[in-house]
Amino acid sequence: MFAWWGRAVVRFRWLVLAAAAALVLVGAAWGTGVFGALTGGGFDDPKSESTQFRDRTIAELGNQDVDVLVLYSDATAAVDDPGFRDPVTATLAKVRALPEVASVTSFYDTQSPALVSGDRHATYAMVQLKAIDPDGKTSAYETIEPALTAPGITTRTGGTIPFLHEANKQTSEDLARAEMFSLPVLLVLLVLIFGGLAAAATPLMIGGIAILGSLVVVRLINMVTDVSVFAVNIITLIGLGMAVDYALFIVSRFREELAAGHEPPAAIGRTMATAGRTVLVSGLTIALALASLLIFPQSFLRSMGFGGLAAVLVAMLAALTALPALLAVLGHRVNALRIPLPWRRGPEHTGGDGAWARIARSVMRRPIVYAAGVVVVLAVLASPVLRISFGGFDERVLPPGSEPRVVSDAISADFAGGTVGPIEVLVSGGGQAEAQRLASTVTGLPDVTGVQVTASEGASSLLTVTYHGESTGDAAQGVVRAIRDLPAPDGVDILVGGRTAADIDLIDSLVAHLPWMALIMALATLILLFLAFGSIVLPIKAVLMNLVSIGASFGVVVWVFQDGHFADFLGFTPTGFIEPSNPILMLAVLFGLATDYEVFLLSRVREEWDRTGDNTASVASGLQHTGRIITAAALLLTVVVAGFASGGIAFIKLIGVGMIVAIIVDATLVRLLLVPATMRLLGRWNWWAPGPFGAVYRRFGIRELDPHPDAAAKEDALTASGRAG
Hints:
About 65% of the residues lie in helices and about 5% in strands. The protein is α+β, with helices and mostly antiparallel strands and about 725 residues long. It folds into three domains: about 1-35 and about 195-340, Up-down Bundle (Multidrug efflux transporter AcrB transmembrane fold), CATH 1.20.1640; about 65-160, Alpha-Beta Plaits; about 350-405 and about 510-725, Multidrug efflux transporter AcrB transmembrane domain (Multidrug efflux transporter AcrB transmembrane fold). It has a four-stranded antiparallel β-sheet with strand order 2-3-1-4, sandwiched between helices. A four-stranded antiparallel β-sheet has the order 6-7-5-8, sandwiched between helices.
């Protein structure tokens, strides 16, 4: 099937390239419009108590969200001085009159001491917007932001909407910077890997198709359901990374077939039958791993799944269509524009006596020693996972100088009982008397610094609860859980919301869905690898290998980002916990990437096993043929990820560092040492498939049927006249 596909692409190469060019044009002209259509937020579980709190509060009391906090300060004047008071009150009067603003609450209206700093040189106003949905609020904030500045007074904005706005803005800037950094470095490295400009340009071309094509797919999905802006990050990361991996693998195999004496059409057929098959298995496996994100109720995780699925599948299809079509046009000219590199022996040097094969034989002579040593190293790297602690993200994920973070820090430090994320309690039923009774009870709970009834309508009231510490801290979480544990009188509903409650609900929801995600990834990998290799042992071993490399990555992430090691060097503020959606996203992406390298290696090992029936020789030859490619792919993907790790958002940095560690560990300790050692220990059991399983593989396996011994020669003769040229 795969060789036939290669011949079909050669025959219709110009049509395929025209279709790819059309996709690029549509992506550039229409697909990029998705940036203005994507939504923000999406961190809530629709069934959680905090979401029910928000919906019922709006229904019973109207919109009560405090969307923007405006901090006014002056180093010399106090809040009561006319030079401070007059410009601030005049500014707030104009803000109240804006059509986007529902209300403004300030010290000058309420005389509340909670709105004045301890030294009385700062005060903050609370602005409520008329919009209800996050996108509407963000748009309204962008409109009113210039009007918030009081002349002559230092003005900074913070709170929920400025925080989300700044996070999205910083993420977009990080994305652009990552692309500017990674693309030139990728080109240089590809030139060094291939030794020529023509071959080096092909992976970047496939990367461009993957990214623009994915934007088209995501915009189509966005026409059916909401997609978060975070989908764009994973499109660039996965789309570019996988496109480079797949193109590297296919172009390397094509050049190898050319070096073996095959004409370009035949070389493409043989490449599709081997490397093309591998790319298909890898792409489907990674896509299914990322599809596991779709089971989560939070739209931002589902959006990551949509973006990842689009990126992988478009990269895979581009590598199986546009790339062989381009290679058919280039033919032997794929080696054009060579750059003399004295250390290279050429892409065709893939014999069985190279350095990679010698490493494999060394490992297989002492498999127990190597396996035990690698396991010990990986266990040490993974050990910090045992003390992982989860918590929600707050303004500390932003760079220290960003305005929302400055406002959050100032209110927490300088205002008595101040917090940018108060706990809110809806008391539905019982009237104001029940609300006052509950307020008195909540006031006596540990770590509570104040309780106020901030809204009432009919039988419903809203309480605002302040507390010690950060909204993500143990004290705040303890207050939320304590309020939720309070018994509600008959006929009264008590719902707890706010930022801390939403964080707790998010963690609980993610933990509840995590086992199903793991089950989907494991089953998908086991089934696809069985169909690819005809063994029930290798898929199980692959899943275990993935887990040990991912475990090592998670351990390093905990040691760095939770414990705070290298915080100054990497430029982030440690919080003492990990936001739980980050490791979940890492798990989906890294599980797929680890399987990608496993498929690259085992595909060639299986090819050699079918040819020789010698397990040890097959492993050595397979590693010799793929070791350089896997290492190069890992290096290139590390460059792509490094651009994200250098950004200003802490959780993007965390994912980047975690991926870099996993890629390095997987491409060195696992694929280079642990896999050969375990395959030597298992011997012929590597390829074991009991009778029924063997029958299933023969019937449904993803494999190329063995050709007649003279098929290759006949194919060369038949297609010589059709050489691309």
